[in-house]
């Protein structure tokens, strides 16, 4: 498989990814704002508006896979009513630790739970969630097909899955600017803020290695999702994929 532009054994990838996120956990949220110039907030809010957590006290349980420091989960419970809760599942204790502190600070610790788990084998019962999300996480998982099948397994019938991920810029002119920005500026910015240029080099490379949206939609269908669709956001910098467990 790939770790950025390097070809590495499938077993090695997860360890290398874990080093990246351990290294950047403390500065992860700040870096997201800087690198995306705040756009990740817009993309995540759009994801939450598609999730439509109920405003009433009806129970709605979200699984946020590779949820890191909890952004999508916090936004979802804040948008939903008192019955809305979320479980952040992430393989990295460092990211989860930052997320738990944020939950305390936001007063959301009773509604957002943090669980250390590998997306490829989720420690949750079949049909136990109303929705599942993964934001900017799936491309880090070595076996994406397994992770998607696991998300489908834990969803209740009718439950929806959303995947937010970097995609292919399809606007002439923007592609060149985007390339220059990602390869020339991001690693340097990463070094300045986290002391770690290599981790951000990996991030930009892994974005280029991610399958184009049509191919990712096929992966979702292969994992058993139905009504699979995707929409490009911000000129294709990001795509929002969706599917339903029937
Ligand atoms: N979803 C969060 C967000 O949007 O801010 C975090 C995204 S961060 C770019 C990617 C996350 O994927 C990291 O927290 C990393 O630990 C997690 N991750 C990588 N491999 C994983 C795996 N196999 N299972 C679960 N999480 C994983």
How much helical structure, as a percent, in the residues? 40-55%
Q: How would the global form be characterised? A: globular
CATH superfamily: Vaccinia Virus protein VP39
CATH architecture heading: 3-Layer(aba) Sandwich
Counting structural domains, the number is 1
Outline the low-pLDDT stretches.
none
Biggest β-sheet: count, sense, barrel?
7 strands, mixed
Radius of gyration: 17 Å
Question: Ions, cofactors, ligands: which are bound?
Answer: S-adenosylmethionine
Adjacency order of strands in the biggest sheet: 5-4-3-6-7-9-8
Q: How does the helix and strand content classify structurally?
A: alpha/beta
| Distance, first to last CA | 31 Å
> Total number of helical segments?
9
- Mean pLDDT over all positions: 96
What is the strand content? 15-25%
Helix/strand order: EEHHHEHEHEEHEHHHEE
How many extended strands? 9
CATH fold-level name:
Rossmann fold
CATH classification class: Alpha Beta
């Amino acid at each position: 498989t790939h770790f950025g532009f390097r070809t590495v054994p499938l077993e090695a990838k997860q360890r290398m990814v874990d080093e990246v996120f351990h290294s950047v956990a403390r500065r992860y949220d700040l870096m997201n704002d800087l690198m995306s110039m705040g756009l990740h907030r817009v993309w995540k809010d759009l994801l939450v508006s598609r999730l439509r957590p109920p405003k009433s006290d009806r129970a709605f349980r979200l699984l946020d896979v590779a949820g890191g420091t909890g952004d999508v989960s916090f936004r979802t419970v804040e948008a939903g009513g008192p019955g809305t809760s979320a479980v952040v599942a992430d393989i990295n204790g460092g990211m989860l630790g930052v997320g738990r502190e944020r939950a305390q600070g936001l007063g959301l610790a009773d509604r957002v739970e943090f669980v250390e788990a590998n997306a490829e084998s989720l420690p949750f019962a079949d049909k136990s969630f109303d929705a599942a999300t993964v934001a900017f996480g799936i491309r880090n998982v070595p076996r994406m097909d397994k992770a998607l099948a696991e998300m489908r397994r834990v969803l209740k019938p009718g439950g929806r899955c959303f995947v937010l991920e970097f995609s292919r810029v399809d606007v002439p002119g923007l592609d060149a600017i985007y390339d220059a920005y990602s390869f020339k500026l991001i690693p340097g910015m990463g070094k300045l803020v986290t002391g770690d240029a290599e981790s951000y080099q990996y991030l930009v490379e892994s974005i280029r290695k991610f399958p184009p949206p049509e191919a990712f939609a096929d992966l979702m269908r292969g994992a058993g999702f139905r009504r699979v669709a995707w929409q490009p956001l911000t000129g294709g910098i990001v795509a929002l994929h969706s599917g339903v467990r029937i």
